[in-house]
Amino acid sequence: MRKMYFIFMLCALLIITAACGKKEVSPRAIDEKNDKCAQCNMAVMDNQFATQLILKNGKTFVFDDIGCMYKWKSENKNENIEAEFVRDYHSKEWVESDKATYVYDQSIRTPMAYNVISFQDKKDAEAFISKNSGKILNFDQLQDHKWKMNKEMMEKNMQDGHTDMNGDHSHMDEGNDHSHE
Amino acid sequence: MKKLWYLIVFLMLFWTHPSSIHAESTLQYLIDQAPEHSIVRIPRGVYHESIVLSKPVTLQGNGQVTIQSCRKEPVISIKGQRVSVKNVTVIQCSQEKNAAAIQVSGTHHRIEHVHIRTKGIGIKLEHAYHTVITQSSIKGEKQHNGIDLWKSEQNVIEKVRIEKVRDGIYMEQSDYTTAVQNLIQQSNYGIHIMYSDHITIQKNISKNNVAGAMVMETKGGKIENNEFIFNNRNVHAQGILLFDATETKVVRNNISYNRVGILAESASNNLILSNEVRGNFIGIQFKEANGNIVSNNTFISNVNEAQALSSSDNEVKRNYWDASLKLDADGSGYSDIPYKTNPFFLSLTKDIPEYQLFFHSPGMVVLQKLWKSPDNEAMTDDSPLMTAKIQDESKSSSGVIIVFSLLLFLGSITLWRIGRKKEDA
């Protein structure tokens, strides 16, 4: 009987520890009225550009642009990050950042003009590129991405004597979302 | 039989009412037929169509003219050069994303006395240059921007009343934009500047918005004589935000009754001069802002006058702080006691915002006194002004005092004379 009791207790302990190990962190909803980007101070809209970062201490930060999240991470390297989420460009559902596929193109308009968008499925990202233009980045490649805002890039292009960005270069229809829409 | 005949004639007259016919078919036709540089006068009426103006003409409403469309296309598209639209009401009722009441590209256009009601964007400028929008109004449904500029330069927006939109005037990559004497209210951000340099924002009133002005990623701008007031409807509301703004002049503005008056973050080498900062929850707040000059401003009745965090090398001098201890031994007009702010409360509430509940609680006051912040994190005014520099109010109040003294003087003389007369009698 004592043996049974011991086994039962062991099982119970195992279940409890297993449950602890499987602690899932889920993203919270965006509150358009009160959420502001932890990096740039702009209101965070409940749209395809919103991102979210959860620290080990349970604290959540929301951002209006993937670029803002990466800039925040570079300035807060000591913070223990538990999870980070981006949005699927079409469905606007939360996606774990390491499972998403990213597209970068200078003509994609994002709230802070970092010009990177995210997709749950790689196929959707490829379809976007075939319809518009851009470069696919996976999560690892995104870590090496140079986060520059389009104005900086534009100035650089001008200095290098490249194309005039104020010319007829029209921005993409699909990426035609204004910063705050 | 005669009655029936009259009825038929009456019905025929009704059906051939000019505005209905013209509304359906002739407005674009009139424009297409008009020679360049001519004036197309539209008779009064309601016109259900979207029109395109692509040659230099003036479209002018005679009487009450309304042009209305519920299609995704702009109600009025302006292209090419020197198009003017005057005296019309434009209604865009499309729910489609990015639908605009008026869309402008090209150069030297003029929009005057145009009144817009829209479910989408009010006026969208894309690659538009030297366009003037004046004496007009835009009323939205809070979903889209009032005036939206994208890669457009040297445009002027003046005397426009904008309400219930997302951002009143939003400009992105639109250098040398000028906004003068506009009124923007009940919107998200009054004026929102992104990646646009050398902008001029003068004599505007931005009130009851989430933010009076969001000045972001800009260089070399002038923000003068504006009123950013009562922007306090949100926990993050502010009068003016300077984010990553450089070499921008913020001069003689009235920044009152907002949650935060002036918030400068990652902003450098800006001039913040002669502003009146009154009745805000926090008067001025610096975060990682360096090399700015804050001088001759008046800080009155702010719950928390100034906070600075990780901000150094800012020149803060000769401001009036109503809460500062003042002593002017040499009569210079400047206090000999420097005024030093303490960012303790800001650093505490940064990580746990709920601690704001303890603002000015006895325990917090003790902690704030115990916890001395390092000098490079505090905002210190070495020579605060002894008296506030509010010209208009001081003038009017001194005028009132003179009149009141005169009345008192005359009253006492009269009473004295009456008393003497009674004595003599």
From TrEMBL, chain A:
Keywords: Signal. It comes from Aeribacillus pallidus. PANTHER family: HTH-TYPE TRANSCRIPTIONAL REPRESSOR YCNK. PROSITE patterns: PROKAR_LIPOPROTEIN. Coiled coil: none annotated. Residues 158-181 are annotated as: Disordered. This is Lipoprotein. InterPro entries: N2O_reductase_NosL. It holds the Pfam family NosL. Residues 1-21 form the signal peptide.
